[in-house]
Design a protein that fits this description.
The chain is of the alpha+beta class. The protein has helices spanning 32-40, 109-112, 199-203, 211-224, 234-240, 278-291, and strands at residues 7-13, 19-25, 45-47, 52-56, 59-68, 75-81, 86-87, 92-95, 101-105, 129-130, 135-146, 154-155, 163-170, 176-179, 206-207, 243-246, 249-252, 272-274. The protein has one domain.
Length: 292
């Protein structure tokens, strides 16, 4: 096909020691600024080296902040280490056939509104937690931002529920999984409901320094909003999540100890689901490099 574009010929040395002639045609890109920006954009995750303490109820949690590198990233992230586990507020427990072990019981809406529950339901003394100690458990929250890295950096107005993910990093294998718990999608996203929003960001943008307050507000909502039966597959949960009972205190049985109670137990992807979100994978890699 005929063309008026300039032709350039190059003779280069190939990896096999032979010379190769290469022809290229050059053209001007109309929107050069866009082309340069596209070349410079890099979605590698940049993470803070020092965690920030986030107060939640009577607990303190460590939080790392991060953003994607490149020009004018559109999101920043908060990664909070749930050292006590993922909260399941409003959940209760029921005995199992295994001595000293209980399984999760999530009340139906009508039971939360006063309808009698089964007689064998056990009331915990504190917020129930999925605290599988084989894993380091995290929640990632995503915020829209603009002008990051400048004095005008802001968190954008955001009226929808906050995008957040639950994931765990196995302490030995370093594999990243999410858990098929109530209100958790297959990819790890948390279904937080209408309360999982920051009250100030609903009304308008805020300075970037407001990020820690926003994370604190959202963590409080995570610990106070009752979990429900949305996305709750009790057969999967009961097959892979059991709790030790000590009076009214409950602690999750680590996966590595499940065979002590169930001889043929094997972890299944029906509950321990793979994470494909690149930011979560990058974070786990960054975290490992900072702790080595």
């Amino acid at each position: 096909m005929p063309t008026t574009l300039p032709l350039r010929q190059e003779i280069i040395l190939g990896p096999d020691g032979k010379f190769i002639k290469r022809e290229t045609r050059e053209s001007v890109i109309a929107d050069a600024d866009t082309a340069i920006t596209a070349c410079m954009r890099d979605d590698t995750l940049c993470m803070s080296n020092i965690p920030i303490s986030i107060p939640v109820l009577n607990r303190e949690y460590h939080c790392y902040y991060a953003h994607n590198s490149g020009i004018n990233p559109e999101h920043c992230y908060a990664f909070v280490n749930l050292a006590d586990g993922f909260p399941l507020p409003g959940a209760k427990f029921q005995p199992t056939e295994y001595r000293e072990l209980c399984e999760l019981f999530v009340p139906r809406q009508r039971e939360r509104e006063g309808e009698p529950m089964p007689d064998n339901v056990l009331e915990p003394s504190d917020i129930p937690m999925y605290n599988n100690t084989d894993y380091s458990i995290w929640v990632m929250m995503r915020f829209n931002c603009r002008h990051l890295g400048t004095k005008d950096a802001k968190l954008n107005h955001y009226n929808d529920t906050t995008t957040a993910y639950l994931f765990g990093i196995h302490k030995e294998s370093r594999n990243i999984k999410t858990f098929n718990l109530p209100n958790i999608y297959d990819d790890g996203r948390i279904c937080g409901g209408q309360d999982f929003r920051d009250p100030e960001l609903i009304n308008g943008p805020m300075p970037i320094g407001y990020l820690q307050t926003a994370v604190t507000n959202l963590m409080k909502a995570l610990f106070e909003s009752p979990c429900n039966r949305d996305l709750y597959y009790h057969e999967r949960v009961n097959a892979h999540a059991l709790w030790y009972r000590n009076d009214t205190d409950f602690a999750t049985v680590p996966t590595s100890r499940m065979t002590q109670y169930i001889d043929d137990y094997k972890p299944s992807s029906a509950f321990f689901q793979d994470i494909t979100n690149s930011n979560l994978i990058d974070f786990a890699s960054c975290l490992q490099s900072t702790t080595n």
